[in-house]
Write a structure and sequence with these properties.
The chain has two domains: 9-79, no CATH class; 90-209, Jelly Rolls (Sandwich). 12% of the residues lie in helices and 40% in strands. It is built from one helix and eleven strands; from the N terminus they run αβββββββββββ. It has one helix at 9-34; strands at 72-74, 77-79, 90-100, 107-112, 120-132, 140-145, 151-155, 159-163, 169-181, 186-191, 197-209. It has a five-stranded antiparallel β-sheet, with no helix packed on it. Strands 4-10-6-7 form a four-stranded antiparallel β-sheet, with no helix packed on it. The radius of gyration is 38 Å and the shape is rod-shaped.
Length: 210
């Protein structure tokens, strides 16, 4: 009688199945190593898969958590389909006083916008000035540097309020504006015109700094 042990039919079946599983599983391992057989999916919705760009970057975007709408960059500008909240700014209250000598057209008073922050917004210009004129309406100009170092000029009209017994004309100025000013630069205020003869002026520039 031979002592050689023989495998049973059940054992042979188990070995065959194990070999088949190993053969079928081998390509999966290779695919996983090349990065072509793995998906990142939403844990709740398996059909929602992450994508990779042609530059091997994971596709991500800013989306609304409720609607799923995403921010778009169109022509270099970011388009946001909603309300953009701006952080609280600090009040910007700039006052300049100036005296103009006779015939000093274009006399300039500099008002420094404090440095720091991203930008300042002048929202109103008001004040008063007086001068001896010979019929011409005096001019007042505001010059400033905005974002990207772009220069701007604004002509603020004066309204004559009265004339005293010495022929001195008194004017008031008031205008709501939106002036974006680069922090750390001067707002230049020019008073007078070619027909001015002695003048004093006070100008208030108010707004917010962010």
């Amino acid at each position: 009688m031979s002592n050689q042990r023989r495998f049973s039919g059940k054992q042979i079946t188990i070995m065959v199945v194990a070999i088949c599983v190993a053969i079928v599983g081998a390509p999966v391992t290779v695919m996983a190593a090349t990065g072509s057989g793995i998906n990142i999916v939403d844990p709740t919705h398996a059909t929602q898969k992450a994508a990779v760009t042609a530059k091997a970057s994971l596709v991500t975007s800013e989306r609304d958590p409720v609607t799923g709408a995403y921010a778009r960059v169109d022509g270099g500008s970011l388009r946001v389909g909603g309300t953009v909240a701006i952080g609280a700014g600090t009040p910007l209250d700039l006052v300049t006083n100036n005296y103009i000598n006779g015939g000093s057209y274009g006399n300039t008073q500099n008002v420094l916008v404090p440095s720091g922050g991203h930008y300042a917004v002048v929202q109103s210009i008001s004040g008063a000035f007086s001068m001896n004129t010979t019929g011409a309406v005096p001019s007042m100009y505001v010059l400033w540097t905005g974002p990207n170092n772009v220069s701007h000029v604004l002509n603020v009209p004066g309204i004559r309020t009265r004339v005293n017994s010495f022929g001195l004309d008194f004017y008031s100025i008031s205008m709501d504006v939106t002036m974006y000013v680069k922090p750390g630069t001067n707002i230049q205020v020019q008073f007078g015109d070619s027909d001015s003869n002695g003048a004093s002026a006070t100008v208030n520039l108010q707004g917010m700094k962010y």
